[in-house]
Design a protein that fits this description.
This protein is of the alpha/beta class and about 260 residues long. About 55% of the residues lie in helices and about 15% in strands. The strands form two sheets. A seven-stranded parallel sheet has the order 3-2-1-4-5-6-9, with helices on both faces. It has a two-stranded parallel ribbon with strand order 7-8.
């Protein structure tokens, strides 16, 4: 996908990967970048730092009516949406003991928000015969987020949903990409490390932490090649192969790592 003169929407765009994507899309020549976030003030700050092509709005991605309203408003103002980035995500930092409210929030943000945006944006894209969906899914969606059961389950679901969309709509001109970074230097990771979440400690111990800008670089390259699976950490592909070839050995290795970190 060539981003020149494209109309783009980025959810969770007020910080981390979302803000980096928004900046990079503008730098690549996008005609408009709509930055949507639950924190509307932070979204406006990012938009102001980018310049006239950026437009900020508040958005709760778990509210389907709000998602549809953002899509409708963007299409009215700019005529179309070429690229929709469902980027917002949440972690829990816990296992089966996380309460139902925590599981529900993870499900609604990490999965249903992707469903809501697809429902809203696909009709216009299909009528025009083209469009691209970029879903931020995490390496947890192809591997496991040690220490975070809800994040693991919902990110697997988000990858599965993105794959379903790609299979179902690619022949009708819709491209779908699943962005699956591993460790990224974002407030989400910093909060997890500070609070002692096991998954965050595993990422920290790996030493393979990218900046949001590096993830944005990988996303741009993947979009240009119209790849389904975009892996900013290329080693994730090797991990996924090892996991598929020897699931028992893969799990044994992770259990060993967990024992070392929790000793």
């Amino acid at each position: 996908m060539n981003l020149t003169d494209r109309i783009v929407v980025v959810t969770g765009g007020a910080g981390g990967i979302g803000a980096a994507l928004s900046r990079r899309f503008a730098a690549e020549g996008a005609a408009a970048v709509v930055i949507a976030d639950l924190d509307a003030d932070a979204a406006r700050a990012v938009a102001e730092s980018i310049g006239p092509v950026a437009h900020a709005t508040g958005l709760d991605v778990t509210d389907e009516e709000q998602v549809r309203a953002i899509v409708d408003d963007t299409e009215r103002r700019f005529g179309r949406i070429d690229l929709f980035c469902a980027n917002a995500g949440v972690t829990t930092g816990g296992g089966v003991e996380v309460d139902d409210a925590g599981w529900d929030r993870a499900w609604r943000v990490n999965v249903l928000a992707h469903v809501y945006s697809a429902r809203a944006v696909l009709p216009g894209m299909l009528s025009r015969g083209g469009g691209h969906l970029l879903h931020t899914c995490s390496a947890a969606g192809v591997l496991t987020a040690v220490g975070d059961a809800a994040y693991t389950a919902t990110k697997h679901a988000s990858v599965g949903f993105a794959e379903w969309l790609s299979i179902t709509y690619r022949d009708r001109g819709i491209r779908v990409s699943a962005l699956c970074p591993q460790g990224v230097d974002t407030p989400m990771l910093a909060d997890g490390i500070r609070e002692g979440h096991l998954g965050a400690r595993v990422i920290e111990a790996s030493g393979a932490v990218l900046t949001p800008d590096q993830v944005a670089d990988a996303a741009i390259a993947g979009l240009a090649e119209e790849r389904f699976l975009i892996l900013p950490h290329p080693e994730v592909a090797d991990y996924a192969r090892r996991r598929a070839e020897d699931p028992d050995g893969w799990q044994a290795g992770l259990r060993k790592l967990v024992r070392r970190l929790t000793a």
